[in-house]
Amino acid sequence: MNLQAVIFNSKKAMQYKYLALCFMLLSGSLWAQTTEDNTSSGDPYKFTVDQDILNLKFEGDATVNIQGASGKQEDVNKTPYTATVLTREEIENAGALTIPEALRLAPGLFVQQTVNGLYEVYIQGTEALPTVSNLSDARSKMVLVMIDNMPVNNYFDAGVLWETLPVSLNDVERIEIVRSPANVFFGRDAASGVINIITRTPESNKISVQGSAQRSFAPNAAKTTFSNASVSLGIRDKFFVRLSGNYNSTRRFQDELYVFGVQRYVPSDSLLFYRSTADKTNLYGSLARQDYAVNAFLRFVPNENVEVTAALANQNSEAQTIYEGFEEFALSRRTSVTNFANFNARIYKLNVQASYTFGDQNLATGYPGYQFDIHKLNSRIYYTINIKNFRIMPGASYQETGFNDEGYHSTDAVYPDIIHGNRKLSNYGFFLKGGASFLEDKLVVDGGVRKDFFSSNDQSLLSYQGAVAYNPIERILLRAAYAKGGTGNFARDIFDESISTTVQGVSIQRVINPALTGSTVRNIEVGTRVQATDKILVSIDYFMTRTTNLIQGLSSTDSSGSNTYERVNATTVLKRNGITPSVTANFSSKFKLRAFATLQHTNFQSDTTVNHNNYTPKYFGGITGTFRTLLEKLTVGASVYLYDSYTMKTTRGEVVLPSKVIPNLKVSYKFWQESTVYINARNFLNDQSKEYIFSDDVPAMYLVGVNLNF
């Protein structure tokens, strides 16, 4: 065995030891548990063996419901689909700083940090081809992300620009996650699944004021600040209002930036040597993200059969992260000023959703051709018909996304206009969902079909899904599901017919492919959920996914000798299968634990460029635990997120990203009513390795914060 292998194996062994240590620390707190029974002895902190965690009385938490899986409110542990709900309490206890970081608490999600506070989120694993045309193709493109049913995906070239979300974790009530194709109910781009961020709404007439702030304090840490505030009240138990605002500012973890021309990291103060407008393009490399937003949430509940919610928001952000991979730098800066309006109504059995977004975005500041005004209209309506034990839900949806770069004309031959005027994408769809229950609700069947029609290339998409869940006995649920979904086309794929000239003077004609279609995903899953004891729930899910029509860039030379570039559907087929086991243990109201992992195998068929199958991690997962003591004033929240090494390969190069164990710890103390002070340690073992190609090393970060509630 060579030295490199010894070092690598030693590092993995150390990581497993760290993981085992975290398990031991969490388990060890079982014997330090206090109960109300202890107060009778006169010493509230006296421990006895018969008061260990397994003997504590615990009635259990309230049922956690999810709507996005089957289209109806149901127990997340009884749905026939692979689904998870992250509650506000577990997110807050874990100390996550952002919404995408909080998704590391859920099974089946692979989350990469690019620079401080900016992430990419995938369901199961990356969807990019082993060889892609640019860095933007390496992003997550098949997960639909919503805020209260309002899509927030970027339809210019797919993915989610997380810093442009107007809401912060302070606004989140829960996050619903469905890890299988969900196109039937939600429409385009839910090919791998859907993440729906459900916001908080007041429940009483009492005026409530909340504010929190945390800031990094270690001398050499990247400057990081997250702050938010909100006020809410209700009127006569029918009309509720909540106003909130947030401000976030982070700096990069390092003062160097990868330069493609020299294939190494270069100090920020030397970037002007490689590009004269580096101060506009990269702010000399220091910025990670800086954004603020204001929100207004309204809720009207005149009676139990009618509920109307509305939200207005304004967001202003800039961020520097991995995006395109231009001639000079791996990182580029993007800005966004966006306004949101969202409306949801439930009127007896009729459900209506409509949202409108408008503003302007510059996805690559300093590089002409990437700035445009945007607008996005989204609407959906469906009706629920109940006939005995059957449920039928017919519905329809319409979506329109517009891009206008007329006010930002580019005169740069290297970076010409991409949109070429005022252009739009639109699609409409019709769906029919249904479900039934038999054998006194022991057998549940759900399914549906949907047809979408796209304005681009006259394409259409047929989606369908079916699932069954069976409770042979009370504590065991068996489930199986099959689904097919896909994505629509994106603006850059069908509008960009520019002629660009490289810095070497070579002209490249971008050719529009009239036959280009979105990617298609087929997914089979089977699983079981077992209530092992009153306090322990075990689930095991097997999945097999097949993705076709993946998109890649094709460079060629036409008959006249001109260089061309075209987006095509690759013949490569991505096949992935694996299992996701998880254990949730609610030992008591004071101690809760969840452990989960995804073990998977990925291969790319019909691709001669593939020389190994390490383009997605073979495992990833985590552990979360919460422990309360000192009369429930002290709360310790611990979490571990880990993943295996994998290779990211682009036309810019190939990088092996090492396996990583990321432990986090938040200790908070309730000093007055529900107000707390806390210390938040992220990646406290200080594993300073990269999580994304050409990005920053991610070291430890320590923050101190306060949360005030009145």
Walk me through what this model shows.
With 710 residues, the protein is mainly β. It has a 22-stranded antiparallel β-barrel. The radius of gyration is 25 Å and the shape is globular. Residues 1-11 and 13-60 have low confidence and may be disordered.
List keywords for this structure.
transmembrane, disordered N terminus, 22-stranded antiparallel β-barrel, Plug_dom_sf, single chain, globular, Maltoporin, Chain A, transport, 710 residues, 42 strands, five-stranded mixed beta sheet, 7% helix, mainly beta, 6 helices, signal, Iron complex outermembrane recepter protein
What's the shape? globular
Low-confidence stretches: 1-11, 13-60
Structural class by helix and strand composition: mainly beta
Q: Any idea of the CATH class? A: Mainly Beta
The CATH architecture designation is Beta Barrel
Work out the helix count: 6
Oligomeric grouping of the chains: single chain
CATH-defined superfamily: TonB-dependent receptor, beta-barrel domain
Overall structural domain count = 1
**What does the average pLDDT come to?**
88
Helix content: under 10%
